[in-house]
Amino acid sequence: MTRAALRANVTPMPADAGSAMLLALMVCVLLTTIGVMLAAVGDTERAIAGHFRASTETAYAAEGVAERVIADLAAAPDWSPYLSGVVRSTFFDADVTPVTAYGETLDVAALTAAVQADADRTAIWGPNNPRWRLIASGPFAGLTGSTDSLAYGLAWLADDPDETDGDAGTDANRVVWLRARARGPLGAERDVLVTLARIECQEEEPCDGSASVRVLSWRATS
Fold first, then answer.
1. Burial status of residue 160 (CB atoms within 10 A of its CB: 0-12, 13-18, 19 or more)
2. Position with higher pLDDT, 32 vs 46
3. CA dist., res. 152 & res. 45, Å (int)
4. pLDDT for position 77
5. For residue range 107-127, what is the model confidence (pLDDT) as tens digits?
6. Other C-beta atoms lying within 10 Å of the C-beta of residue 173
7. What b/e readout covers 81-95, taking b as 16+ CB neighbours within 10 angstroms?
8. Is 63 helix (H, G, I), strand (E, B) or coil?
9. Interatomic CA distance for residues 91 and 138, integer angstroms
10. Other CB atoms within 10 A of residue 192 CB
11. CB burial class (10 A; 0-12, 13-18, 19+) of residue 189?
12. What is the DSSP letter of 185?
């Protein structure tokens, strides 16, 4: 067959075939882009939900640790042994480098030093400056009996600096400061700062347990 005959048998391509192929390619690119964007949105939403859960969990844990320490203090006849480091809360983990349920290794001594350094930066009371003592620590799940919480709790106690006795290890005015902290996954951390006062039980108004401690202030920080 001659070359002219071959050319005669070839079916010509429609004039709009190129436009159709380009349109199909554009649709494929658009669908792929939408799919990638939806996957990214899903990952972002999961990350936001995870951070929200961790933040909420640590907030509850910090408050729970604070309440446990307050209960211990309510049952104590004297707070000075807590301030001097002789007595600790019944919620206490002796491990100085505990590994949390979410896999973080904590340096308890370093955390305590950081709390003290933070207080020293703004301290103006001289010998009455607060000296923070670690009095409580441990997995929050061990405090509540729940296996769901991954948070780890710590608490420090310091003497009220308004005292003028010059001894940060002795409670003279029945007022102390409490700092409770919870750490959780994804870098979540929450502190609760509490000022507590002991109230004396009167015969006409008997008190028991936590009723013998008055919360003068309660402030949560992140």
1. buried
2. 32
3. 25
4. 87
5. 999 999 999 999 999 888 888
6. 13
7. bbbbeebbbebebee
8. helix
9. 7
10. 22
11. middle
12. G
